[in-house]
Automatic annotation (TrEMBL), chains A, B:
Designated name of the protein: TetR/AcrR family transcriptional regulator
Keyword Ribosomal protein part of the UniProt annotation: no
Source species of the chain: Streptomyces lycii
Gene3D superfamilies, per the entry: Tetracycline Repressor, domain 2
DNA-binding region, residues: 35-54
InterPro entries for this protein: DesT_TetR_C, DNA-bd_HTH_TetR-type_CS, Homeodomain-like_sf, HTH-type_TetR-like_transc_reg, HTH_TetR
Coiled coil feature spans: none
Length: 228, 228
């Protein structure tokens, strides 16, 4: 019994190692530029041994990308502490940490199917978006969201993706600036929609009311007043 | 000579007909759900005859999707008349006309490669985004855009895509409301970025200054003041 358990652990450990090595490779190059040989070499094992733990290139890449997708989804989990703006800012910090660590892999995940080498990549990124969506609704304290607040949240998640991809392409704007800008953009998009929708208006009023003078949303209101 | 010219015209006309039939099919179903048989039947010709005009399914689908992509890019061409808000609202009207006419095909184009059945689909949608980007910069009168105004425009194009895809999924919000909301969102996103960037601030000030009391941006400013 003991031996069997130990052998099983060995297989799992080796699989974990290969997933970690693949993710490390995907942090430097897009998955479609990484070969199984590259991974075998980096793991210090032979190519056939890689296939012993994963039946094919696709299954290893899919396991690695699924791991990354799960990790990305987890970055949206945030305690209900502090104002909404402060919470979103912490989430954006962890989101950009992820983008920073997994650059080419993140871009490939968003590009979907072909680049990742997995037909399930589209479903995986949709799962991440869905997890992010649920987390944010939880913080907005909206239980049964109507179409307009749903659109605000889904639009904002898309905005975070576009912003992160643009940042990766040359890193011409400091990421801290973009993290704060995304938090501000959430309130801006919600305020635009609030004009048409009482549910969204309630979220905006609550968010603005709970802010302290030095927190993200208060800054934005001051800035907008100055610009317009 | 005359005969040859007439025969060539015939080939081009038949190809045009097949492209039109494919696009008509893609307006009801995603390209990956449409077979060459479906297209042959709708065109009233045999399946082998389709292959006489297009060497394979991929080349026909790619020609159809490229036609749609070109048409979508053209919707962003807008004369320099009226305020920026009015122009963007006209562009959004034509954009949603396209989305309305080409629903499943539009969604597939944004989904990229696999769904369209063409490896070049990612490049095609990138071309559309690039054309939209150049048109908008032209209207903003920005010749050599810095990274922040670039990000605003690219983010907004992404926002229009997310909004259109969400609209297609159930059409739960009237499209006229979304068209106006997108125009408002442009100013909102630009205003957020303007706090960090003088180039964007100039664009925002000019856009707000040229508005009449009843035009899109003026409404937004009034609404935001009321909400916040």
């Amino acid at each position: 019994m003991t031996t069997v358990v130990r052998r099983r652990m060995g297989v799992e450990e080796r699989r974990e190692q290969l997933i970690a090595v693949a993710l490390e490779q995907f942090s430097h190059r897009s998955p479609d530029e990484v070969s199984v040989d590259d991974i075998a070499t980096a793991a210090g094992i032979s190519r056939p041994l890689v296939y012993h733990y994963f039946p094919g290139k696709d299954s290893l890449y899919e396991a690695a990308v699924r791991r990354a997708a799960d990790e990305l989804a987890n970055r949206f989990v945030e305690p209900r502490e502090g104002s909404l703006g402060t919470r979103l800012l912490r989430v954006m910090g962890r989101y950009f940490d992820f983008v920073d660590e997994h650059g080419p892999g993140f871009a490939a995940l968003l590009r979907g199917g072909r680049t990742v080498g997995s037909e399930n990549a589209d479903a995986m990124i949709d799962d991440v978006r869905e997890a992010a969506y649920r987390q944010i609704m939880h913080h907005l304290e909206v239980d049964d969201p109507g179409p307009r607040i749903s659109l605000v949240v889904r639009s904002w998640i898309g905005l975070a993706e576009t912003t992160a991809l643009t940042w990766l392409d040359g890193r011409r704007i400091p990421r801290a600036e973009l993290e704060l800008q995304l938090v501000h953009s959430f309130l801006a998009l919600a305020s635009v929609s609030a004009a048409q929708d009482e549910e969204t208006a309630r979220v905006v009023r609550r968010a603005v009311a709970e802010e302290r003078p030095d927190s993200p949303f208060s800054e934005l209101v001051a800035q907008l007043t100055a610009t317009v």
